Amino acid sequence: MTKKHIHWLHEQLPLLVAQGIITSETAASIKSHYDHQEAPSSRPLALTIFAILGGVLIAGGIILLMAHNWMEFNRSTRAFISFLLVILGQAVVGYALWKDKISAAYREGSGLFAQLTFGAGMALIGQTYHLSDDLGAFTLTWMLCTLPLVYLLRASGPALIYLAGVTFWACNVHGWYDRSHPAAWWIWIALLIPYAVMEMRRNPYHPRAILLMWGLGICLAIGTGICLESGWRNLWLVIYSGMFVSLYLIGSFWQGEGTSLWQRPLTFIGGLGATILLFIMTFDNVWNHIGWVTGSGNGQEGSWAALHDVFLACITTLTSVILMVTCRRRGQSFHLGLGILPVVVTLGYLLIGSGYGSSLAGPFFIIANLYFLGFSIMTLVEGIKERQLGTVNYGMLMMAALILTRFFDSDFGFIAKGLVFIVLGSAFLGVNFFLARRKGGPTP
Amino acid sequence: MKKSSLILCFAGLCVFQLGVCGFMIYRWEVILRTGQEYRFKTRAVDPYDAFRGRFVSIQLEPDYIPTDDKSVGQSLAPGATVYVTVASGPDGLARLDQCLSEPPAGKQAYLKTTLQYVDTSMNLQPGDILHPLGLARKIMESDDALSIFIRSHLPNYETETIEKSLKSGVEDASLSNTLASILNRMIYDQALSTQLLGKTKIGGVSEHPEAMRAEMDKAYPGQLAPTPRARIHVKLPFDRYYMEENMAPRAEQAYWDHSRNRALERMSVTVRILNGQGLIENLWIGDRTIGEYLKSQNK
Q1: Suppose B193 and one of A61, A107, B206, B214 were both cysteines; which one would form an S-S bond, judging by CB atoms 3.0 to 4.6 Å apart?
Q2: Residues 6 or more apart from B141 whose CB is under 8 A from it?
Q3: Closest Cα in chain A, distance from residue B110 (Å)
């Protein structure tokens, strides 16, 4: 329970007593119960944040001192300092592991410190020998050598740095000249999954698990795009819809009872990503440019790199379908409107791409628009039903975006657009009137 | 996990991390101690690396492998592993010699690297202009069709650069850059192509760069280095020399000061090469290392 909730409770208790719903004794015991709970909740989090900041700042300072590049130091002195930096980080972690009861704050701080001092040691070696600009290889070596710290210390801070580091590597390796493919990024991400599963099983609402899920969700959204080969035109629609919906469903499955947006990172990233994707699909351009191998990739069509995309499309779509079935069987609450997105997109991609060609692009464009409209209405209704202003606004925003873009769309004649707008407007008014009458009150 | 196994795993990680650092140091130290030494002429600018600090960014001159085999771009794809042999010229300066798909037999020094791209254009590099002042004078004073055309098409700022250099008699890098840029424009100029070669344009730009290049050689004999049919650009391991943060900008300044005066020796870099790997040993201005040079400037 957050401070805000407790404050609200404090306001409500005297009113409940005054109305005779609860006795003053009950009110006092409820108050003392939550007051007692409030005290220990914020301190460890603050300590952890300070420890993380402390570790990062000290190690950052050391990196900057080394970056000054003292010309007076010869190669042996530099080698000695490199080892010293690495050992310093190791000693701090060693102490954390040796002591029996060590705080989470110290574990996080020491893990980050050791991770950064190892990077500083490596950077100093690179500086000493004037190694050329291979930042990708430098980052990858650094990240892989410090990944075990995440498992040994059970610390999410180093895990977040690792995620950022390997994703940076993927950006860096996607060279313009050498056309190398960062498919190994999936392996580097997979190395962190056991830790993520462990933390989620332990307590999915612990800040450590939540932070990790934010990092993982954002990295997956960025890294997938970097790894795409793009030889298959618009296959990213299938891949991203499968991935976002999978993230959304995993989030609903594991962190579905989170009280705030902050506590549901995967649901948020997956839901928002899938909505944006669905919105992109309401443009006819997307459906008109679907096809098998094209010349739009970076020259590796038909090679294993293009197969990587197909493989990814199959995996993400299958995962989303399996997750949806599992969630349904277990009675988990989730938005079915989003859940079926990968199926619709894959079906469209296969049908249009398999030779029926542009004849089906038109119908799928209309289906996508109806789908988006239906989804926004469903969200709106759900928001009204649950009295969640955020959800209502989300639904309204989606609908406004769709109406605005279609209003300015030049592909339809003014008459057709005008008629559809009038029909839709009438339908809204009709539903409003019907609902108001059923409730028996005046139309708001 | 039990505490003892946790500590054991951590000890393993410590040994591994120290081993990685130790291996890196050992690998580069062996090259510096036993590799063959070569000296390249170089250019320098001063950039910044968040982790490793300031460095002088180095560009070898020339930084490509010239070849007359135009088909090399078809046989080698960008990103392919190539072996570049290094040879020393009579002036004691090294140059990139051949680009091979297999390591060379024998004891010839080579670098194992990746191909970036093959440039088959006729474009001139600033280094291809052998006597910038002589060429500038010819362009401004000769009565041949090419010079007249160039003069009538020069923007003011380029005319000013050339006239300033002719007046002061200083052959600096900006003059070479300007001349190379002018001649490269002329190679592809349609009006000039029609005038000199009597050929009309085909497609968007002049389709006769080789004939135009030959016209330039004819008009300015001995002024331009022969242009290779293709230039192979590879990723070179000699691209940065780390320096103390306040020294790197001064090193760049020293390079520019020197390049303005041809009487002085220019910047060079000594490298060590062993088993396909290369490492920078020192950066030189004239016969002094960059550190010694900057210290002497302080006095």
Answers
A1: B206
A2: B147
A3: 17
Do residue A364 and residue A312 come from a single domain?
yes
What's the one-letter identity of residue A199?
A: E
Residue A390 lies in a domain: yes
Helix (H, G, I), strand (E, B) or coil at B217: helix
pLDDT confidence bin for A286, thresholds 50/70/90: confident
Exposed/middle/buried for residue A7 (C-beta within 10 Å: 0-12, 13-18, 19+): exposed
Count of domains in chain A?
3
Per-window interface: B 147-176 vs A, CB < 8 A: none
Task: Tell me what ipTM this predicted complex has.
Answer: 0.76
Same domain, A309 and A358: yes
pLDDT above 90 coverage of chain A, percent = 30
In a domain, A9, yes or no: yes
- Nearest neighbour of A179 by CB, restricted to B18, B78, B279: B78
Residues of chain B contacting A86 with CB distance shorter than 8 Å: 17-18, 21
- CA A175 to CA A231: how far, in whole Å? 16
Q: Which residues of A touch B245 (CB under 8 A)?
A: 67-69
Q: Minimal CA–CA distance to A112: which of A168, A72, A180, A165?
A: A165
Chain B residues with CB under 8 Å of A152 CB are: 6, 9-10, 13
Asked if residue A238 and residue A257 are part of one domain, the reply reads: yes
> Residue A433's domain spans which residues?
414-444
- Judged against a pLDDT cut of 70, whether residue B51 lies above it is answered with no
For the residues of A7-53, what is the DSSP string, one character each?
HHHHHHHHHHHHTTSS-HHHHHHHHHHHHHHHHHHHHHHHHHHHHHH
In a domain, A143, yes or no: no
For every residue of B73-109, DSSP letters joined together read HHHS-TT-EEEEEEEE-TTS-EEEEEEESSPPSTT--
Q: What is the DSSP letter of A71?
A: T
- Are the beta carbons of A177 and B117 separated by less than 8 Å? yes
State the CB neighbour count (10 A cutoff) for residue B219: 18
Structure confidence at residue A413 as a pLDDT band (50, 70, 90): confident
- Residues, chain A: 444
Q: Which of A120, A144, A112, A137 is nearest to B52 (CA)?
A: A120
Provide the 10 A C-beta neighbour count for residue A314. 14
Alpha helix stretches (DSSP H) within A99-233: 104-128, 135-146, 148-153, 156-173, 185-190, 193-202, 207-227
Say if residue A315 is in the same domain as residue A333. yes
Do A350 and A420 belong to one domain? no
Residues B152-176 pLDDT 10s: 888 888 888 888 888 888 777 778 8
Asked if residues A315 and A186 have their Cβ atoms less than 8 Å apart, the reply is: no
**Pair (A256, A334) in one structural domain:** yes
Q: How far is A152 from chain B (nearest CA, A)?
A: 7
Domain assignment of residue A278, yes or no: yes
Q: Name the residue among A70, A75, A180 with its Cβ closest to that of B244.
A: A70
Q: What is the pLDDT of residues B261-286, one digit of tens each?
A: 554 457 789 999 998 999 999 888 87
* Cβ contact, residue pair B241, A152, below 8 Å: no
A435, A305: one domain: no
Report the alpha-carbon distance of residue A115 to residue A147 in Å, rounded.
8
Beta pairing partners, B248: none
The domains located in chain B, with CATH, are: 32-63+236-299 (2.40.50), 64-120+229-235 (no CATH), 126-227 (no CATH)
Kindly state whether residues A367 and A433 are assigned to the same domain.
no
Residue B168 CB contacts under 8 Å (≥ 6 apart), including other chains: none
Question: Of B197, B191, B235, whose CA–CA distance to B218 is shortest?
Answer: B197
